[in-house]
Design brief:
By secondary structure, the protein is an alpha/beta fold. Helix 3 packs parallel to helix 4 and helix 5 runs parallel beside helix 6. This is ABC transporter substrate-binding protein. InterPro entries: BCAA_transport, Leu-bd, Peripla_BP_I.
Length: 412
């Protein structure tokens, strides 16, 4: 009986030790931004398989569960409850900033850490920031400061026209870029809003017609994902992309692939990562990630995939260092932690939980450059970069934004 009891206890302890650690991906599998969502899924699965192949985390395998947000904030919030109910101890995902804010707020109510993988609106880590949210991607201000430096130097005294998606990311992107290009005067540099998420083809046609009639020399498309794709196709039909400099503040591989690289030649924007970055920064880990991703999926990774991959590795590292799955302990381990993974050095800043990293100003390559590479994915050229500490808002700026929003000057 003693032997039988010992054997039973041993089996039970082993079963407990091998019980998986559950994490949840809250991503757009359908609707707006589904391509960026798929990239996140692929990056996450690669990271989890690599960690599990090395023995897992705290001696246990990691298991991923997922929910489709359809890029709807209310659905994303419900997903948080559902995944926590299934035992998820960490949540990540989103593309839309509104989704990130809604999901993270529900996670805060459940005292569970949430990583905004993508979500560029400033308020994600300023007015709407709190103790349980971390943002891996850059903010609208970080993009605008890098892009503004380049545009001011290379397109001085030009007339701008802004076409902006009518939601938080669009507003903060336009506001930030106007400030950093000295184009705040809306009489000289006009703009229009297009509905989000329900814009029609006529909305893009009308907006671009106004841009053309304004005689603008620089057209800023503060649009993202499918909205940017539709606007660029319309601009190509009108010939605007061949006679006017077009700027897309957040210019991603997935958008270029959906639109067609030939339609986007010369478009300027920013990225916080793309597959050429590890070569530029001489990052061995980044090069290996790109190779492993390419071997597994038959294509090179987009920034959304790199963000999801980074989030999982950084969360796992914080769990290992804190020897805990408790969100409070993991948060302490992440705050002010500096690391180097897929590029140069980055840091999870303590006071606002913004990931501070280098921002790259990029321009879409011509067809010859794209097809010359065996992958046919050599879409982007880096024309300028800005270090994270210069791109990100200061602590004083952050406190002023929080004060204006009547929020406490420390994360709660």
């Amino acid at each position: 009986m003693i032997l039988a009891l010992a054997l039973w206890l041993g089996i039970s302890i082993t079963a407990i030790a091998e019980e998986p650690i559950i994490i949840g991906l809250n991503f757009p599998r359908t609707g707006h931004y589904k391509e960026e969502g798929l990239a996140q899924m692929r990056g996450a699965l690669l990271a989890i398989d690599e960690i599990n192949a090395k023995g897992g985390l705290l001696g246990r395998p990691i298991k991923l569960i997922t929910r489709d947000t359809a890029s709807r904030p209310e659905k994303a919030a419900r997903n948080v409850d559902s995944m926590i109910g299934e035992g998820a101890v960490m949540l990540f995902g989103s593309v839309s900033s509104a989704v990130a804010v809604a999901a993270a707020e529900r996670a805060r109510q459940n005292k569970t850490i949430y990583f905004s993988t993508i979500g560029y609106a400033n308020d994600v880590t300023t007015e709407k920031g709190h103790r349980y949210i971390f943002r891996e991607s850059t903010s609208a201000t970080m993009s605008a400061r890098a892009l503004g430096e380049y545009l001011t130097l290379n397109f001085p005294n030009k007339k701008y026209f802004y076409i902006t998606a009518d939601y938080s990311w669009g507003h903060s992107s336009e506001e930030s870029l106007r400030k950093n290009t000295n184009t705040q005067d809306t009489n000289t540099h006009p703009g229009v809003l297009v509905p989000f998420p329900s814009a029609k083809q006529s909305d893009y046609s009308s907006a671009l017609k106004k841009a053309e009639e304004s005689n603008a020399e620089v057209i800023v498309l503060a649009l993202y994902g499918h909205d940017l794709v539709r606007a660029m196709r319309t601009a190509d039909t009108m010939g605007l992309n061949r006679k006017t400099q077009i700027v897309a503040p957040n210019l991603t591989q997935t958008v270029i692939e959906q639109t067609g690289p030939s339609l986007m030649v010369g478009v300027l924007g920013t990225e916080h990562w793309f597959w050429r970055v590890p070569e530029i920064e001489k990052s061995g880990t980044g090069l290996m990630f790109t190779k492993n991703f390419s071997d597994r999926y038959g294509l090179y990774p987009a920034s959304a995939a790199a963000s999801a991959y980074t989030v999982i590795y950084q969360w796992a590292d914080a769990v290992s260092r804190s020897k805990s799955l408790d969100s409070a302990n993991v948060i302490k381990a992440l705050e002010n932690h500096e690391y180097q993974l897929l590029k140069d050095k980055a840091q999870w800043r303590g006071f606002d939980h913004q990931n501070v990293q280098t921002v790259y100003v990029v321009r879409v390559n011509g067809r010859e450059t794209v097809v010359r590479h065996p992958s046919r994915q050599d879409y982007l050229e880096v024309v300028h970069s800005l270090s994270g500490d210069k791109a990100a808002i200061s602590h004083d700026e952050w406190k002023e934004l929080r004060k204006a929003a009547k929020q406490p000057d420390t994360l709660r």
